[in-house]
Amino acid sequence: MELLGKLNSPVMYLICGGIILLVAIICVIFGVRAYKAGKEMGIDTGKMKRVITASATFSVLPGVGILLGVIALSGSLGTPWPWLRLSVIGALHYETQVAEAAGEAVGLKTLSASEMTPEAFTTIALLMCFCIIWGMVLMIFNGKSYITRLMSPSAKKKGESAKEGEQAAENKAKKPSFADTAMTAMFIGLVSAYIASYIGSIVSKDGAFTFGGSPLSLAVAVVSALAMGLFLFVKEKAKADWIDSFSVAGSMLIAMAAAIFMGKVM
Predict the structure, then answer these.
(1) Which whole-number Å values give the CA distances from 129 to 74, 135, 224, in the listed order?
(2) For the chain, how many helices (H) and strands (E)?
(3) Half-sphere CA count of 171, side-chain side, radius 13 A
(4) C-alpha–C-alpha distance, residues 154 and 172, integer Å
(5) How many angstroms separate the CA atoms of 78 and 5, rounded?
(6) Which residues pair with 210 in a beta bridge?
(7) Which of 13, 38, 108, 244 has the highest count of CB atoms within 10 angstroms of its CB?
């Protein structure tokens, strides 16, 4: 627990808190500039205020999922570091998976404070940062051309009417991009790897199938998948796209509650 005490030290809070404060100030500055730009463009201030209120409201529940991630990682990595990673450019699914993968790579059986070493924490923290910085790095070199491409009239060829150009742009927007397809394929691969590891613990002995480990992980994975499926079903039936903002956090809460319940039963 000595290492965990250092990871929760005032120095760590000062370093991580200072970075988060800087990012928060930048967000406020850009928010104020965006509001002023909206007024200059003639957008109704009442509408802008409603958008701000709605955005703040719909950020609450997804933020619960982020908080759960901080709590889940704080037991092994301390509170400041997960707080920093999940407050700036980190993502809940990314940070937890990378931390677990890095921990396994350095020989940790579980991501826990009892097994954590300074070397393991350094490796985990470095990998969590290194793998996610490329979006910012690439934006330095490609940001201007990318924004120019987004702002330029799309799908308008010589001789096309404005209506035809708009229709072509709409059809192009409906077609999934390579980035969307690659991201989906990556997460399907990650989920498949985790579920395969759970199923791989099932062994056959004398014609009977038993779990080499605890079946709890597989059971919780099934519950979380069903919960996400329910959210998607309700979204499609009710035509409520806003449910996307709550589905991850809601599925996590349901899965955690199921893990607590089944952990006592199994």
Answers:
(1) 17, 12, 28
(2) 12, 2
(3) 8
(4) 9
(5) 8
(6) 203
(7) 108
From CA 198, how far away is CA 219, in angstroms rounded? 9
pLDDT band at 26 (very low <50, low <70, confident <90, very high): very high
SS3 240: coil
Please give the DSSP secondary-structure letter assigned to residue 241: G
What is the SS3 assignment for 215? coil
What confidence category does residue 12 fall into, taking pLDDT thresholds of 50, 70 and 90? Answer: very high
What is the spatial distance between Cα 9 and Cα 91, in angstroms, rounded to a whole number? 24
Tell me how far apart the alpha carbons of residues 23 and 84 are, in angstroms, rounded to a whole number: 10
The torsion of the CA quartet 42, 46, 48, 52, rounded to 10 degrees, works out to 170
The sign of the torsion formed by the CA atoms of 126, 132, 134, 135 equals negative
In this structure, how many other beta carbons lie within 10 angstroms of the beta carbon of residue 228? Answer: 17
Which pLDDT does position 176 carry in this prediction? 66
Please state whether beta strands 208-211 and 202-205 pair in parallel, antiparallel, or not at all (unpaired).
antiparallel
| Residue among 86, 4, 61, 38 nearest 254 (CA) | 61
Rounded distance, CA 262 to CA 235, Å? Answer: 28
- How many whole angstroms separate alpha carbon 262 and alpha carbon 266? 6
User: DSSP class of residue 201?
Assistant: T
**In terms of pTM, does the model score above 0.90?**
no
- What is the per-residue pLDDT for 133? 83
